[in-house]
Amino acid sequence: MQPLVLTMGEPAGIGGEIALAAWSRRASGVPPFALIDNPARLAALAKSLRIDLKIREIDEPSTVGAVWRDALPVLPIALSAPVVAGRPDLRNSEAVIHAIRHAAKLVLDGSASGMVTNPIQKQVLVEAGFKYPGHTEFLAELAGPGSKPVMMLACPGLRVVPVTVHLSLRDAIASLDVNRIVTAGRITNAALQRDFSIKRPRLAVAGLNPHAGEGGLFGREEIEIIQPALQILRDEGLRITGPLPPDTMFHTTARAGYDAALCMYHDQALIPLKTIDFERGVNITLGLPFVRTSPDHGTALGIAGTGRASAESLIAALATAAQMARARLEEAA
Amino acid sequence: MQPLVLTMGEPAGIGGEIALAAWSRRASGVPPFALIDNPARLAALAKSLRIDLKIREIDEPSTVGAVWRDALPVLPIALSAPVVAGRPDLRNSEAVIHAIRHAAKLVLDGSASGMVTNPIQKQVLVEAGFKYPGHTEFLAELAGPGSKPVMMLACPGLRVVPVTVHLSLRDAIASLDVNRIVTAGRITNAALQRDFSIKRPRLAVAGLNPHAGEGGLFGREEIEIIQPALQILRDEGLRITGPLPPDTMFHTTARAGYDAALCMYHDQALIPLKTIDFERGVNITLGLPFVRTSPDHGTALGIAGTGRASAESLIAALATAAQMARARLEEAA
User: Fold this and answer.
1) Rounded to an integer, what distance in angstroms lies between the CA atom of residue B25 and that of residue A153?
2) Which residues have C-beta within 8 Å of that of residue B121, sequence separation ≥ 6?
3) Strand A158-162 and strand B292-295: pairing?
4) Strand order across the beta sheet in which B33-37 lies
5) Which of A332, B63, B271, B326 would suit a FRET pair with B252, their CA atoms being 20 to 30 Å apart?
6) Is the pLDDT confidence value at B134 over 90?
7) Which residues contact B22 (CB under 8 A, 6 or more apart)?
């Protein structure tokens, strides 16, 4: 299997130090990756954090295997301004974007088996002319027409897919429709089969309202939108339960009954996930032609450069990407 | 301290059997209570479940202490129809309501230190002319003018107060206003002091929208409603953090930073609570002149009479009521 590729992300954030930490823990099974980043700034960062490591510039991911044990393999990129921890610099935006573009190229041409993205700082990219709401939309465009990205978040014991994401709760309710739920259900089902080797995935679907509306007493979205969507999915052969009362579907016993939960809004998915396992949440983009995961946190500018950031989520993102890549290979074989 | 009083609830539900189970576990510290129920039907239920226990009819709660070790003390009420597990009978509605009324009388006149209510079946009570959305509103009326009931849910490690409750999510958003949040904050703060002996309670307040709106990007309720409400509460001297991103405030480390979380809607409060501890959730009504708790589940008609229902939540409700009653006594002393 080809190695993974990891992007730099915002260099003023914690991406660099968690990447160094992940490589340092390679003996515990962190899957091999090539980091797209600036070697000089990484060396300076390692020195300031007193991390003893070698950095090896490489030309292509195929050499990762030979280098991995002794040095962190880096696909080098240039920066336009010195990196100051905690202070994103507009001048480095192009490098941030280039790293993502380069990673996408490597997974699309098959020289990397999956990509993991370090967090970016949206505002500074937007100032520099970046016109996407985030990584996901940018990657969907790089992936080409027909890709319908769907966000999944996973931790040990729970996978959730929010049908609506970065919208006010009011707008999330307004934008809920049969089509969105059907699309998310289909893509989730296909991804569980292909990327997680689950032959007949069990999907649990949350209601929108308290008690899933209690028969229309507390809202009619379950009756008018969710049930019709689930009927379409059931008619296609998917194994679906729901719409379920949202508050009783995330305890340990309930979770044992499904492979992924389809949620109607951001916090319905994220509250249980981050309550159960705050450190090891992984963000997975389904519906792309390649494997893509990311740690489920931001740039953490406030603690960048201190070495205090936890690498747990990045390591989980790398492990998940490797697992998905392996499942795709096995399915293709 | 006076004993607690426990209502019958819907006799066709699981209330009777979990009450018997709670008394059976009195050696493990279940606080003494008088059960308002029908002695004959309890005896028949115990027999059918092969629970070996004596039932002692009593006239008033003051005799609970003398009886408790040897028999389940019951304040008797009459039923108008035979109880069939799983099938609520309209003719018994009056007895269900009478039990609640009687319990309220006993806590109001001081002969019981707190009341715990077994679950009722709303539809059948409504058919019988009961005009309240639930226990809470009925108790507020029995308590007299000026009582502003606020629902708190608690499990070991988390207390949550939803500012809006049994409304569709759409209506919950529409009904959110400064006044509701301020009232809930004041009542929660006062109750934490009086009923939980916390001198300077720390309240964490959730935002409504993902990422608490991210500065207005995903909704303006944080800016226009929640922040102004919190300013009023802070000006009154309350210790408040928020509005917080809802998804990152319920993991173990975050929960250690506050005594109660004020939530904007039902599932924002109930999802984390039931995810953390599905069995031992307790429903507490703050803002009443007396102590009232209840198990955080319904009548469970589907398993009533089988003995399969867990008594954990009822036992937790009894323990919480006793703890609150003791705190009130100590504060009064």
Assistant:
1) 42
2) B10, B12, B13, B88, B298, B299, B301
3) unpaired
4) B55-57, B72-76, B33-37, B4-7, B114-116, B292-295, B282-286, B150-155, B158-162, B260-263, B202-206, B239-244
5) B326
6) no
7) B30, B33, B311, B314, B315, B318
Please give, rounded to a whole number of angstroms, the shortest distance from the CA of A14 to a CA of chain B. Answer: 19
Contact B170 A219 (CB under 8 A): yes
For β-strands A4-7 and B150-155, DSSP reports them as unpaired
Which tokens go with A173? Answer: 């309710």
Q: What digits encode the pLDDT tens for the residues B14-73?
A: 999 999 999 999 999 999 999 999 999 999 999 999 999 999 999 999 999 999 999 999
Two structure tokens written together for B300 = 């469970």
Q: Are A140 and A288 spatial neighbours (Cβ–Cβ below 8 Å)?
A: yes
Residues of B in contact with A171 (CB under 8 A): 218-219
Please provide residue A292's backbone torsions phi and psi, each rounded to the nearest 5 degrees: -140, 125
Residue A207 in contact with partner chain B when CB distance is under 8 A? no
pTM for the predicted model, two decimal places? 0.92
Contacts of A246 in chain B (CB under 8 A): 267, 270-271
| CB < 8 Å from A in window 230-259 of B | 246-248, 250-254
Closest residue of chain A to B250, computed from CA coordinates: A275
